[in-house]
Amino acid sequence: MTPPPTQGSVDDTDKSAIQAALFEQLVSGHGQMALTFLSKLPDPHTGEAAEPDLTAAKIFIDQLDMLQVKTRGHLGASEIHLLDRTLSTVHGAFLECAKALNSQAT
């Protein structure tokens, strides 16, 4: 007969699942904030796109870049994919927005 799982093993499984969900929320939230500041998503309070704020967007993008560097070798495949995809999206949106603002200024 197999003994029932110990409380520690159940807690470890739950903790791992919770940490995976929190990581996904963190990455997705930072990506959404960057896109909001780049006027790619509507402001959640007004429902309208706000004026682009490259400085604010860059803060969230830099934090995602830092997260990628600091977690290298410690993420699962789905977490790596999520972070890579999010970074690709926000970097592209940042460049597009910066070009558009630059062409408006000239």
Compact description:
With 106 residues, this protein is mainly alpha-helical. It is 74% helix and 0% strand.
Task: Give keywords.
106 residues; mainly alpha; 3 helices; elongated
What does this structure look like?
The protein is mainly alpha-helical. The chain has one domain (13-105). Helix content is 74%, strand content 0%. The protein is built from three helices and no strands. The chain has helices at 7-37, 54-71, 77-105. It is elongated. The mean pLDDT is 91.
Estimate the helix proportion, in percent. over 70%
Q: Detail the poorly predicted runs.
A: none
For the largest beta-sheet, the strand count, sense and barrel status come to:
none
Radius of gyration: 19 Å
Rough shape?
elongated
Got a strand count?
0
Number of helices: 3
Through-space gap between termini? 77 Å
Give the helix/strand class.
mainly alpha
Averaging pLDDT over every residue, what do you get? Answer: 91
Topology order in helix (H) and strand (E) letters: HHH
Tally of domains: 1
Strand content: under 5%
Layout of secondary structure:
Blueprint: H1 7-37, H2 54-71, H3 77-105
